[in-house]
Amino acid sequence: MKRILLLILAVWWAGGVQGQTKQANAARKSKADAAWVKNIPVEEVIKWRRHIHQNPEISFKEEQTSKYVEDVLKSMGNIEVSRPAKTSVIGVLKGAKPGKTVAFRADMDALPMQEETDLPFKSKNDGVMHSCGHDAHTAMLLGTAATLSRMQKELPGTVYFIFQHAEETPPGGAIDVINSGALKGVEAFFGMHVLPDFPAGHVGILPVGAASTAQDIFNLNIIGKGSHGSMPHLGIDPIVVGAAIVSALQTVVSRNVEPGEMTVVTIGKFQSGDAFNVIADRAELAASIRTTSDKTRKQVEERIKEIIESITKAYGATYELDYINTYPAIQNDEALNAHARKSAVAALGKEQIFDAPMMTASEDFAYYRKIAPVSFMTLGIGKGPANHNPGFTVEESALQNGVKAQVQIILDYLNK
């Protein structure tokens, strides 16, 4: 009996080893099969990124950036280039065989911010900086376009490379690109955003459903009645009114929104008065509101307006309110998310793919869902200051992995 058990164990162990060997061989074969990796223009991607970083342009002003991107795309020889908006560029690569149509999007605009890095290629434009990583997004997508352009004869279907203007400034550039009609026929949209504090080159798959927040803004002018500081009974103090509004707005999340529903109400501006002994006649407030569902977004807007209306009336003041709905939340498609994960694992290995938390920031990439399903993901760029910080940097070693993941996602989508 003991000998039989030993024989069974030996057979089981040999089978396990053989299975592991097959898996290892399959993994090696998968990597060996990715012959296109050698087509990635790694040095050019870094060169493109540095040029764009050094010459940043703010939203709706990306004239030189878009011209640079257009020239690079045209130099590839087989990519059709169009301008869906004044400072946006679309490159279209048509494969040799018919098939699906897929799009990958990168944004190109910088922020009105003074750069505070010691990079040898730091911004040459005073007060403008690529502090969100859009220079990296653009360079990676150019790398993806260059890689796939060398594979045109093998491609079934069509790839749209969207280089979009004005992501940072509502109403955003995506709306212009969509309204141009240039994206008719696209069946799926993918996008990628660099984020610090995740390992460089690791791809994060954002959640299915709400992958980011919706962003709304309000600007509020409270109109009181000015008076001498020693005679408050003759005035209507807009600072007191504003303080009551700020305090009441803190209850919107804690007492009106369903627990577990991610919501943020931030009062970022409160300005009034010029002298210590004068009751001002006006106060200005501004706020940012983040939500993830249409239901909560509408509920929060209605509640904020009720609070402002009631408190100003109670104090005898009047007001002017500009409530602006900007970007909706990105809603990641379940099937596309699964596809992106599988392709990223195939390109980089399972150990370099992770489940990314929902972004609390907002993105006008969300609008592409008007045309077709979307999937948005992140790319780690190592330790460093947060996006929108004047010291923001990108670990450039991560960019090659970004290109690898993008190419694999597109190839798998076209070939499935």
TrEMBL record:
GO terms for molecular function: metal ion binding; N-acetyldiaminopimelate deacetylase activity. Its cofactor is Mn(2+). The keyword Iron-sulfur does not apply. Residues 1-19 form the signal peptide. Mn(2+) binds at residues 132, 134, 168, 193, 388. It comes from the Bacteria. One of its GO terms (biological process) is diaminopimelate biosynthetic process. The Mn(2+) ion enhances activity. Keywords: Hydrolase, Manganese, Metal-binding, Signal. Residues 218-314 form the Peptidase M20 dimerisation domain. The keyword Metal-binding applies. This is Amidohydrolase.
